[in-house]
């Protein structure tokens, strides 16, 4: 049905599976990126009329200039990371995201080399970014606690995952000020084998003061998915936006209060999906960091019961399934998985209406 991302960027997906490696879970889609700036110079940031060079530089931070240059050049952080790698410079997309947002700035020798290379990649004049760097920032308790979520997310999701396609550079700051403590999701399939209802319950904790909402992202891999109704059972729906070109729905759910660092909140919402004609065959969730509790519970319609069901785990969106275990329907025609130790990675349930071919449908279990 969907690829969903909530606090701490848990991501889930269900619906027609396609190739197993395509889950992000979610089928990989062509990134709507224009030809990279490596192939054409990016225009330099424009200076307002009547403002001298020195005045413009004083008003523009390194992060702002980097953000504008990337935007003008049509280059994503992943592609910039790739071009730097081709030059033997290793800077993660998360670090690049922090640079353009002003959360950190280049200070080490390799980082400063990266800035010089970025100027070449983006077609900027020499020194256009380097001259905007300020003195080394103080370190210690005065600085905010760094969120573990962005780095962890970049390890679990591969480039081109639905979250990155839908949100671009913002994918690496996705709910970075929240961490999931527990998550429970319940899916209900209709008599055509399609996921008709999807309910999620999150318990989250704030990593800093001032957090006001959680953002969720669902990627629908069925192009014929109709409009989706979102009902928030605990929390308040603040914004809902659809990106049909990448089959995504993104919505913000407010807590109704401002969280202080260390405070917890509960978010509970339901998606109701209109009738479809392509049956679903799996659902999975990505957890970039370990959680205390994860439960995936799926109810099948009595007129469309699967003959084979398996739970599985993947270390990342580029890794094959492992720990594959057969599941059996209970009296309510439902199955569930609840890992005893929920480490970071991708958890899912897949099903078939006919018997699995001998060993071909699933990759072998890995140690």
Question: What would you say this structure looks like, in words?
Answer:
This protein is an alpha+beta fold and 367 residues long. The protein is 18% helix and 31% strand. Helix 2 (62-73) packs across helix 4 (93-101) and helix 3 crosses helix 4 (93-101). The model is unreliable at 1-11, 16-58, 137-144 and 355-367 (pLDDT under 50).
In a few lines, what is going on in this structure?
With 367 residues, the protein is α+β, with helices and mostly antiparallel strands. Helix content is 18%, strand content 31%. A nine-stranded antiparallel sheet has the order 7-8-5-1-2-10-15-12-13.
Describe the protein's topology:
Elements (H helix, E strand, L loop, with lengths): L2 E3 L5 E4 L38 H7 L2 H12 L3 H10 L6 H9 L7 H13 L27 H8 L5 H6 L10 E12 L5 E12 L4 E9 L8 E7 L1 E8 L4 E12 L4 E10 L8 E6 L5 E7 L8 E7 L7 E5 L7 E4 L7 E8 L15
Parallel strand pairs: 3-11
Antiparallel strand pairs: 1-2, 1-5, 2-10, 3-4, 4-9, 5-8, 6-9, 7-8, 10-15, 11-14, 12-13, 12-15
Question: Can you tag this structure with a few keywords?
Answer:
single chain, nine-stranded antiparallel beta sheet, disordered C terminus, 15 strands, 7 helices, 367 residues, six-stranded mixed beta sheet, alpha+beta, disordered N terminus
Task: Kindly report the average pLDDT value.
Answer: 76
Strand order of the largest sheet: 7-8-5-1-2-10-15-12-13
Q: What is the CA–CA distance across the termini?
A: 30 Å
> What order do the helices and strands follow?
EEHHHHHHHEEEEEEEEEEEEE
The secondary structure category is: alpha+beta
Instruction: State the total count of DSSP E strands.
Output: 15
User: What does the largest sheet look like?
Assistant: 9 strands, antiparallel
Beta-strand content estimate: 25-35%
């Amino acid at each position: 049905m969907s690829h969903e991302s909530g606090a701490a960027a848990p991501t889930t997906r269900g619906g027609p599976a396609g190739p197993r490696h395509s889950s992000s879970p979610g089928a990989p889609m062509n990134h709507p990126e224009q030809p990279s700036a490596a192939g054409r110079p990016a225009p330099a940031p424009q200076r307002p009329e009547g403002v001298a060079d020195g005045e413009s530089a004083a008003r523009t931070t390194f992060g702002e200039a980097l953000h504008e240059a990337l935007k003008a050049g049509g280059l994503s952080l992943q592609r910039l990371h790739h071009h730097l790698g081709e030059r033997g410079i290793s800077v993660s997309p998360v670090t690049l995201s922090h640079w353009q947002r002003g959360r950190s700035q280049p200070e080490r020798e390799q980082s400063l080399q990266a800035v010089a290379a970025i100027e070449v990649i983006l077609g900027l004049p020499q020194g256009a970014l380097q001259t905007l760097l300020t003195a080394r920032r103080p370190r210690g308790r005065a600085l905010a606690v760094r969120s573990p979520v962005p780095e962890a997310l970049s390890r679990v999701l591969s480039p081109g995952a639905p979250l990155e396609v839908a949100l671009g550079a913002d994918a690496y700051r996705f709910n970075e000020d929240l961490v999931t403590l527990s998550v429970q999701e319940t899916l209900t399939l209709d008599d055509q084998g399609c996921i008709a209802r999807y309910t999620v319950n999150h318990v989250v904790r704030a990593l800093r003061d001032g957090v006001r909402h959680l953002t969720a992202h669902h990627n629908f891999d069925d192009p014929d998915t109709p409009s989706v109704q979102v009902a928030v059972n605990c929390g308040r729906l603040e914004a809902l936006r659809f990106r049909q070109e990448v089959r995504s729905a993104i919505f913000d759910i407010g807590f109704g209060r401002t969280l202080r660092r260390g405070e917890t909140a509960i978010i509970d919402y339901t998606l109701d999906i209109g009738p479809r004609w392509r049956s679903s065959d799996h659902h999975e969730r990505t957890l970039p960091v370990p959680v205390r509790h994860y439960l995936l519970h799926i109810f099948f319609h009595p007129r469309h019961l699967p003959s084979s069901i398996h739970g599985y785990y993947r270390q990342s969106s580029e890794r094959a399934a492992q720990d594959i275990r057969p599941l059996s329907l209970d009296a309510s025609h439902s199955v569930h998985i609840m890992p005893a130790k929920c480490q970071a990675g991708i958890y899912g349930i897949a099903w078939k209406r006919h018997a699995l071919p001998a060993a071909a449908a699933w990759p072998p279990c890995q140690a």
